[in-house]
Structures are given as C-alpha cells and as structure tokens.
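ugh ok fine here u go
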Amino acid sequence: MHEIKCSHCHQAFKIDESGYADIVKQVRDQQFDEQIHERLALAEKSKLNVIELALMKSQNVDITNFEEDLNNFKTGFARNYELTSKKFKSAISEIDKTIDHLQKTKDALLGSENNLRLANNKADDLTVKKLTKNNPTMKGKFGELGNM
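structure:
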C-alpha cells in the first residue's frame, strides 16, 4: 500500500499497488507530454535559429563575393585605364612629332618658294645687254646677230 498526499487539501490517501501504478502512469504521461512539447518547442526554436544563422552566413558570403567582385573590377579597370592612358600619351606624342615634322617641311617649302621667287625675279631682270656687259666676245657675237 502506498500513501499519497493531496497537494491542494493536504489530505493523505492510501492506495493499493495497481491504483498507485495507474496514478504514477498518468502523472508520468502528463509530464512526458509536457516535456515532449517543451522539447519540440525548443527544437523548433533551434531549427529557426539554425536557418537564420545559415541565412546570415549566406548573406555574408554574398557580401564577401560582392566585395571581391568589386575589387576585381576596380583592379581590372585601373589596369585598363593605365594601359589606355599610356597609349593615349604615346599617340599624342606621335601627333606632336608629326606636327613638328610637317611644320619643318612647310618652312622648307616656303623657303624654297621664296628662293624660286628670287630666282624668277633675277631671270625676269636678265637681258642680253646685262649678260654681255663685261664679256666683249659675247657682245661681238650678239652684235653680229643683230646686224644680220
């Protein structure tokens, strides 16, 4: 025989083995159900925490990948900018050299034109009289031609 005391009225009851076993089983079943519900609630909460943590890690990986992609883009862009800048400066230098060469060629042509103009003026100014002035032989020959 077992004695059980009521938690509300504090009265003691005597129960045989089978009755006691039934009460213990009911108490255990209720406690078991409560523990199962508590553990299920904790498991659900833990699952939600794991999902949230996985999502946060995924977002961190996305941010890391984005930062790596951005840095790779910046590095590539800077390299391309530097190469293009060098080529641009080289092209400008070549254009300047070509302009200098063309200016020298222009100056030379203008100088040649001036020399041709002076030569032409001298040729226009040239006469038989001037050619024979200090040359008596030629003066005589042209004189003979004039008498013919």
